[in-house]
Amino acid sequence: MTRLAQTAGLNDIQQEILSTVRDFVDKEIIPVATQLEHRDEYPTEIVEGLKELGLFGLMIPEEYGGLGESLLTYALCVEEIARGWMSVSGIINTHFIVAYMLKQHGTQEQKDTFLPRMALGEVRGAFSMSEPALGSDVSAITSKGVRDGEEYVLNGQKMWLTNGGTSSLVAVLCRSDEGHPEGTAPHKSMTTFLVEKEPGFGEVRPGLTIPGKIDKMGYKGVDTTELIMDGLRIPANRVLGGTTGRGFYQMMDGVEVGRVNVAARGCGVAQRAFELGVSYAQQRQTFGKPIAQHQAIQFKLAEMATKVEAAHAMMVNAARKKDSGERNDLEAGMAKYLASEYCKEVVEDAFRIHGGYGFSKEYEIERLYREAPMLLIGEGTAEIQKMIIGRRLLEEYRFQG
């Protein structure tokens, strides 16, 4: 284990899980990640390895066949996986947001139907809020679900769906005005629908089309797609929790888990960037000595390591807060904001240490340099995090005049 980003207070099981995951990352992910990323190839063998390790069931309760571990354990595993290749952590992130939402908000029938198969990785989850013209304004959702007897008919276009092609269960947020009079606040007239589908692209079930992968600057390998619903019919018992109008709150609960996940990914990518930078600095020589012996590079390494430590500490705090059952939107927002910003800075510093070689696709830092920016946007931009943080601080420190 490295000196940086250690976590105090872990039990023997947690330490064993993390050791196993780190060993898997070192042997099975890092050696092939850059090659697969350059080909934009889905990491099938890596995913099968994660299934064998039981990671798709890490946070799913034991009664449903999972390991029943905490969000902290999951976040630390994500940190390790992102250190190897951030795209792999994205594959399990959306799966776990859906599993978490089912565990917290699903009916007993929904839990019994999906969680055991999700724990095995047989059913893989994705969730969908965003739309082409939506941005960060979730209240502006236009996709709609309308009741028709014992079914709902869904219409609309969703965007930025991670695991859109490979998933077989998608939690989709739509507007549903049933039972909610005109003038109801937008966030009180949204519903999460559990949409089952076949993996793949094209028309994956009647009324549901996954057009194909979106070509991205980074974050390759994992499939990011649109989702088009045109008269998609699903049974009424596939409303998450069985009651309409609760979708916004269910999704925001899931997104809090997602923000801890993105913070963990930022920590993992930053750790890898530091490892690459400190290693290269000891090999590369200028003016007759390794550049690590130049004070300017030592200052840079010191700043990078401090940022890695700070981001990790905030991520761990946010995960533990959520595990305690307390509200953690402030801590999750802070962790996501700081970890993603520091990740970008640490990666750029490692890129600078590499000099011209950092611009070459032969060097791993080139891949990290393209991956880091996604973390500035995923699960809410920095500006959204600062809005959340500011509002919560004003609640906590309300002026008593």
Order of strands in the sheet with most strands: 2-3-8-7-6
Q: How much of the polypeptide forms β-strand, as a percent range?
A: 5-15%
Order of helices and strands: HHHHHEEEEEEEEHEEHHHH
Class derived from helix and strand content = alpha+beta
How many beta strands in the DSSP annotation?
A: 10
- Quickly count the helices: 10
- Can you give the mean pLDDT? 93
Descriptive report:
With 401 residues, this protein is of the alpha+beta class. Helix content is 51%, strand content 14%. It has ten helices and ten strands. It has helices at 12-38, 44-53, 71-84, 86-105, 108-120, 247-283, 295-323, 329-354, 364-375, 382-396; strands at residues 125-128, 144-148, 151-162, 169-175, 190-196, 202-205, 208-210, 224-235, 285-286, 289-290. A five-stranded antiparallel sheet has the order 2-3-8-7-6, with helices on one face. It has a three-stranded mixed sheet with strand order 1-4-5. α3 packs antiparallel against α4, α4 (86-105) packs antiparallel against α5 (108-120) and α4 (86-105) runs antiparallel to α6 (247-283). The longest helix has 37 residues, at 247-283. The termini are far apart.
List descriptors.
401 residues; alpha+beta; five-stranded antiparallel β-sheet; three-stranded mixed β-sheet; 10 strands
Brief summary of the model shown:
The chain contains ten helices and ten strands.
Task: Give a topology summary.
Elements: H1 12-38, H2 44-53, H3 71-84, H4 86-105, H5 108-120, E1 125-128, E2 144-148, E3 151-162, E4 169-175, E5 190-196, E6 202-205, E7 208-210, E8 224-235, H6 247-283, E9 285-286, E10 289-290, H7 295-323, H8 329-354, H9 364-375, H10 382-396
Parallel strand pairs: 1-4
Antiparallel strand pairs: 2-3, 3-8, 4-5, 6-7, 7-8, 9-10
Helix pairs in contact: 1-3, 3-4, 3-6, 3-7, 4-5, 4-6, 6-7, 6-8, 6-9, 7-8, 8-9, 8-10
